[in-house]
Amino acid sequence: xxxSNAVAALLNEYQRFAETEMKNLFAQDPARAEKYTxxxxxxxxxxxxxxxxxxxxxxxxxxxxxxxxxxxxxDMFSGKKINVTENRAVLHTALRNFSGQPVLVDGExxxxxxxxxxxxxxxxxxxxxxxLFRGATGKKLTQIVNIGIGGSDLGPYMVTAALKKYWxxxxxxxxxxxxxxxxxxxxxxxINPEETLFIVASKTxxxxxxLTNARTCREWLINALGEKAVANHFVxxxxxxxxxxxxxxxxxxxxxxWDFVGGRYSLWSAIGLSIAIxxxxxxxxxxxxxxxxxxxxxxxxxxxxxxxxxxxxxxIWYNDFxxxxxxxxxxxxxxxxxxxxxxxxxxMESNGKSVRLDNRKITDYATGPALFGGAGxxxxxxxxxxxxxxxxxxxxxxxxxxxxxNECGKHHQILLANVLAQAEALMKGKTxxxxxxxxxxAGKDEATVEKLKLxxxxxxxxxxxxxxxxxxxxFALGMLIALYEHKVFTQGVIWxxxxxxxxxxxxxxxLALKILPELEGQANGEHDGSTGx
Length: 533
Ligand code: G6Q
Known about the structure:
The chain is of the alpha/beta class and 533 residues long. Helices cover 48% and strands 11% of the residues. The strands form three sheets. It has a six-stranded mixed sheet with strand order 1-2-13-12-10-11, sandwiched between helices. Strands 6-5-7-8-9 form a five-stranded parallel sheet, with helices on both faces. The longest helix has 22 residues, at 474-495. The chain is globular, with a radius of gyration of 25 Å. Bound molecules: glucose-6-phosphate. Glucose-6-phosphate binds next to loops.
């Protein structure tokens, strides 16, 4: 960020605060946890284990004000074309708008169309679930295969897995995304054509991976059931009606969405059809309503009480002042095991940018951090070593439901104990003296104490957020995802980048198309020595 007043103030705050240890802040202020915990519709968000005091926090709020965050939020919700490089409005929030209020793009209310497609999804998902819409041979369609990639895959893939407990008993979901033929072969070997519904999900309907996978699946189906069966076994989710029809899918079997819905923000649209079929439309709507609750909160809560704003500002504090360019998301919920890869796309595709909105190359500050993660407790036994004792801290988001969907002996108590212990250990650490005392108490001789005390000590002062949900319902999941969406948006506002384009992804789409005919011997290309060889 250019050195503005707010940035200069934050640089001073950084100098003042750098040596402060969080554990001392807790010791000095018994009310710290309470002061820095917020609640929202069944979520408790505790951000007290972060490196800040009131001075730092106020300076961060000033940074948000300096970037006119409140106005930028209104710009997004009200349909301004904030995706400037593609000249598009950004209205995934309209997809989960149940307020009855219009949302205008170029003077036209987009809500009637959104409601029409929602109703079409409701009707169709019910017809598949209750067997009114059947396969060509009269069998119920119980095997749902979503064919899509990136934003047309990761959302439904993550959400259907997260809501597995809500699936209809006789329905199973499968996902084909990769162009690697293995992805197709593995799914096709497990399903029966007579009972399979293929959902071809592609915003543009031009993506080579999805179209190639869809053609292979279409051929497989035709070989088994004949050409006429396609109408009963294929539907499309897209913005491109012409390409859908050219592909051979009936226009009636297409569920539309619009170019104001970005790929990685599209699970709330027709792209969520596999979710609606798996868990039922009412649960899909509950997911949307959870997101709507997060939208209302983001739009109306003051900065000081605004969860996505706090998530974003603390992220910026570490990214741009501590120079920590990574963070980890660790759900302690087996059903959420794909959440980190979903968030990887959301965050890294949105904010992995180096050109500003004013068209200047960014050379003097860092934008989006790298995100990684996995399900706790599994990852405690893999990369947590680096979180505890690596040379640089990694801020962590811990996510856990208070009540499990699968009460099973003491499992959930142990899971909860683990997440709390990890967050506390990261924050408190263990000094070499404490480690030495433990070694002596265990009867070790002084030579062993000297040899091991540093290895057994932990710097501590490592930050984390805690998201505690009453239960991971469709509503709670919708809220969680939307909170991250708004966090990413807020950071993009402060970094002054377009969080809604993805020119880096487009490059990959072009390059492979150029080399493919060369591999097939139909063209010669100019390449560097390595690629040519
Ligand atoms: C997401 C990106 C990208 C996109 C895929 C699939 O924001 O744009 O991940 O979703 O490339 O694109 P289609 O849906 O057009 O096939």
